[in-house]
Amino acid sequence: MPDSPDQYEMAMQLKSRVQQVGARFLLTELEAGLALLDVADTSQHGTSNERRRALALEAYEVVTDRLARMGTGAVTLTDAEQETIQRLYRELAIRLGR
Question: Residue 44: phi, psi to the nearest 5?
Fold first, then answer.
């Protein structure tokens, strides 16, 4: 009978994966928000640009909410992830006039 993985080890691997996915989610939201603003800044389609800006604001608000929950231990960021996320978050906030 093959050895089964230790449940503690499996839990730690799962927790690590959750951390990675959580950090990637925040980065993706920020990058998407900034990309939407880039398109809106160069496009001549007013109605579409309003929608792009609204989606960028939604991305900002989602990240704001997730960052507020960071103290709950749901996701812990590495120093490098935190630095990158904070830099992009500030850039998005500035571009949205927040």
Answer: -100, 5
Distance between CA atoms of 95 and 98, rounded to whole angstroms? 8
Q: Are 30 and 59 in contact (CB under 8 A)?
A: yes
Q: Quick one: three-class SS letters along 27-56?
A: HHHHHHHHHHHHHHHHCCCHHHHHHHHHHH
User: Could you give the CA distance from residue 7 to residue 38 in angstroms, rounded to a whole number?
Assistant: 46
Q: What angle do CA 5, 8, 9 make, to 5 degrees?
A: 55
- Count CB atoms within 10 A of the CB of residue 77: 18
Residues 6+ apart with CB under 8 A from 35: none
Is the model's pLDDT at 73 over the cut of 70? Answer: no
Band (1; pLDDT cuts 50, 70, 90): very low
